[in-house]
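ok trying again, last paste got cut off:
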Amino acid sequence: MSRLKACFERLAGESKKALIPYVMTGDPQPEVTLPLMHAMVASGANIIELGAPFSDPMADGPVIQAAAERSLEHHTSLHDVFGVAKQFREKDDQTPIVLMGYLNPIEVMGYETFAKLASESGIDGVITVDMPPEEADEYIAALKQHQIDPIFLIAPTTTEERMQKIAAVASGFVYYVSLKGVTGAATLDVAGVIERVSLIRRHIDLPIGVGFGINNAETAASLSACADAVVVGSAIVNRMAAQKDTKAEQTSIIVQDVTELLDSMRQAMDSQ
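nice, full thing came through this time. structure:
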């Protein structure tokens, strides 16, 4: 059984929902990512979404774009992402890792090589923001050959017909983008998200994660009532950006800022 499937089944048995924080590999310094990942788990994270920086992150807003730029200043590559995941696995063989990135670096590496290296490093799923399922047959085959779940995005504008196409190829979970636009947008219609998640469940028999616009404990708790997972990205990266000039040896300052947010979200989600 995959780590992702085991995680969601365990949480369902405990009547809990998954908390999925996002961290950009190498932001603000390479030394921060690994201890932050472990600290996130200690603060109640169930799955880690590990960002791979890209120079043209079209789906991301200014906050995560800036994180990618900071990461790329350190020349962070896919190989560095794999390296961090592999180091994480030395101490944690249970928490699933989902790599989130863009297609171009993966195509340059080659689907088979990417899937093999990702699997060997302990990555469990991949969200490839700009890979539509209609064009992903070869890519999906490479991922599944190496027991990696291809995770697809569903937008507020996604038709029911396309949901069915996604259902045919996705595994692990699906990621509902709760807002039109890019990551970090400010206005979230919780009632509308609840209605949309209900519609998605009619077509897709996988756990549903909801992300974009979740920036506090109250919102995380509200959405965890309808979804199987809450994804938190820009709110975390904002806190890291505020400490971007912190020296590498002061990693604990960044970790504390992020884990305070996750602690509050975990507590609010579990009190539902």
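cool. The beta strands are 18-24, 48-51, 97-101, 125-128, 149-151, 153-154, 174-177, 208-211, 229-232. Residues 164 and 203 are 6 Å apart (CA to CA).
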